[in-house]
Automatic annotation (TrEMBL):
<dbReference type="Pfam" id="PF07701">
    <property type="entry name" value="HNOBA"/>
</dbReference>
<dbReference type="GO" id="GO:0020037">
    <property type="term" value="F:heme binding"/>
</dbReference>
<feature type="compositionally biased region" description="Polar residues">
    <location>
        <begin position="338"/>
        <end position="347"/>
    </location>
</feature>
<keyword id="KW-0963">Cytoplasm</keyword>
<comment type="similarity">
    <text>Belongs to the adenylyl cyclase class-4/guanylyl cyclase family.</text>
</comment>
<dbReference type="GO" id="GO:0005525">
    <property type="term" value="F:GTP binding"/>
</dbReference>
<keyword id="KW-0408">Iron</keyword>
<dbReference type="InterPro" id="IPR024096">
    <property type="entry name" value="NO_sig/Golgi_transp_ligand-bd"/>
</dbReference>
<keyword id="KW-0456">Lyase</keyword>
<protein>
    <recommendedName>
        <fullName>guanylate cyclase</fullName>
        <ecNumber>4.6.1.2</ecNumber>
    </recommendedName>
</protein>
<dbReference type="GO" id="GO:0038060">
    <property type="term" value="P:nitric oxide-cGMP-mediated signaling"/>
</dbReference>
<dbReference type="InterPro" id="IPR001054">
    <property type="entry name" value="A/G_cyclase"/>
</dbReference>
<keyword id="KW-0342">GTP-binding</keyword>
<keyword id="KW-0175">Coiled coil</keyword>
<dbReference type="GO" id="GO:0019899">
    <property type="term" value="F:enzyme binding"/>
</dbReference>
<dbReference type="GO" id="GO:0001666">
    <property type="term" value="P:response to hypoxia"/>
</dbReference>
<dbReference type="GO" id="GO:0008074">
    <property type="term" value="C:guanylate cyclase complex, soluble"/>
</dbReference>
Amino acid sequence: MYGMLYESVQHYVQEEYGVETWKKVCQIVDCKHNSFKTHQIYPDKLMPDIAAALSACTGQSFDFCMNFFGRCFVRFFSNFGYDKMIRSTGRYFCDFLQSIDNIHLIMRFTYPKMKSPSMQLTNMDDNGAVILYRSGRTGMSKYLIGQMTEVAREFYGLEIKAYVIESQNDISGGTAGPIKLTDGPLTVIVKYRLDFDNREYMAKRVNTAAHPSQLKMPTVNMNVFLELFPFTFVLDHNMKITHAGEKIVETWIMHNPGANPKGFIGSYVMDKFHCRRPKDTTINWDTLIQMRAVLFEFELIRTGHNRAAYDAVLNMDFENYDEMTLNEAQTMALTKAQEFSEQQQAKNADDEDEIDPATGERRSSQGLRSILLKGQMFYIKDVDSLIFLCSPLIENLDELHGIGLYLNDLNPHGLSRELVMAGWQHCSKLEIMFEKEEQRSDELEKSLELADSWKRQGDELLYSMIPRPIAERMRKSEEHVCQSFEEVSVIFIEVLNVYDSGSNSIQDAMQAVTTLNKVFSALDEEIISPFVYKVETVGMVYMAVSGAPDINPLHAEHSCDLALRVIKKLKTDELEGVAIRVGINSGPVVAGVVGLKVPRYCLFGDTVNTASRMESSCEPWKIQLSQYTAEKVRSVGYKVESRGTVKVKGKGEMETYWLLDGPET
Ligand code: HEM
Ligand SMILES: Nc1nc2c(ncn2[C@@H]2O[C@H](COP(=O)(O)OP(=O)(O)OP(=O)(O)O)[C@@H](O)[C@H]2O)c(=O)[nH]1
């Protein structure tokens, strides 16, 4: 069901019962939508679920809530300006009741997927009327009562009493039965009695006969109607087509090659047409008489298409036709049809498509479209028949040709031609607008992609300076991120013999940068997040940490694994005399982001200083561990060897260890 119905419910439940009640209702029905989009389709079941939940929250009955929702809908659609449409349906409430189906028909362009109900005014008297409601949804019967009550009050100043007199398949009363959209025909049927003062309307109907416009007019020959409405047809009480306009007969012949041209008149209407609107309507005399205010749509049944057969039949000399026996005419039409399809196959063989004479465009000869006739039934007393005064529903020239018609086939006095041309212009304007829109959305798409890539690059740059979890925390809150860690392992790696600081040659400096870049990139490849995080590079020194920002109990092991990997990797890189040395120490640190312009994630504490000293006092191609780190990894199988005591700047005598290898794998 379209979101507009749910928008109205949400709006007025919040207004009437408060936002908290609405939140509670959403919680009960587990509704994920904070708001509803007018033109989006939501499950039908949501409506009774919300009614049942509101009933539970407020103590009102389910029926009361559904009735309330119906009233909300009428108040709400006035915001869309639809109130004008309701007021324009007619002077009296009964005029409105006869126009609800037409209202939904008109709305079909705005709500193309609408599965609207069907409403039929079956009886009227001084004290009210009887309405027959049919729908594919169950449980909406009280919703409709709310709508009708609100429309009567708001737009006609009428207080009505509406109640169900009989129903089939409807779930009424408190059972908030699931609304299911039953496939196929409208199976929910509810008959309502509406009690209200209808005397004025009834009196008007009686006076109509005495209306000045009803001065005795000469009877009109039926042919006038058939000329004015060339697509019309006349029905008798048995729903047989007794007369028809020339264009509908010609179209039927074109769309049913080989059929007997005289087979249209005298046939049962539903053998020739599908009734598209109102849906699932039983086409019989009583129903059509009752529904004269309703707009019907009939689609011509076609068994194929065949312009040549059509031409052949049209070129037939109808006058002498009566001499021809029926099957002679059919044989001729069939022969023509046969010739046409053989020619067609030949043409298709060269993949030639038919050039449409009117638009000059290639048009595949795959077939014509069915013709849709839209109009109203009128009762003609003189001949005790119903005439379907209609025009073909054609939106644009393509559709016109798709049916095999031309503009001059359409009734000149009606608006059909204007509509087609307007539709066509409208379509071409729309096409231009769509193209522009498409262009704009492509441009928007490209700029969004560009913005996205910039954001990604920005994020990569940011995450190269600040660990992602820290950056995300900083994005969420202004808080300054500073954290202490009980124990991490800090790794310093220095690249040796890259650059002779005494040299002034640019060449050497550029070579150094290239080599350094190569080495640091190789180190970057060995950083496995989130176990080890690269902190910074200063000069020839590469600093990393394990255990921050993500806590990692195996920080010492992961640091040693990294060290062993990079020694192995860089030794095989034959970097012309370049060497590296690695120092690792474990202990507590404080970590935080410092700086605004180029924010950096920095580590503070003696653990860092000692790790740096482990590196700066290390020999090339070796890994020196502090005693604490060595004992940690030795206990899990890493091979370490005491280096003895080393005089470490700022630390005095320290026992340090060489890391020789990882645990037995
Ligand atoms: C004038 C503006 C109106 C608009 C724009 C409108 C539009 C709609 C839409 C979009 C739906 C949902 C159908 C679907 O999603 O399949 C709907 C359903 C419905 N409408 Fe209307 N409508 C209007 C007036 C009315 C009036 C005046 C009545 C009756 C008094 C009415 C009776 C109903 C009912 C009972 C349903 C529920 C669907 C069902 O029972 O199957 N509508 N309408
Ligand atoms: N790259 C880097 N090095 C650091 C960091 N913190 C300390 N160090 C180095 O660790 C070593 C020991 O630091 P300190 O004990 O403070 O010694 P210092 O007196 O500041 O520096 P020295 O002149 O080397 O003695 C120094 O070489 C520092 O450069 C850091 O966050 N990043």
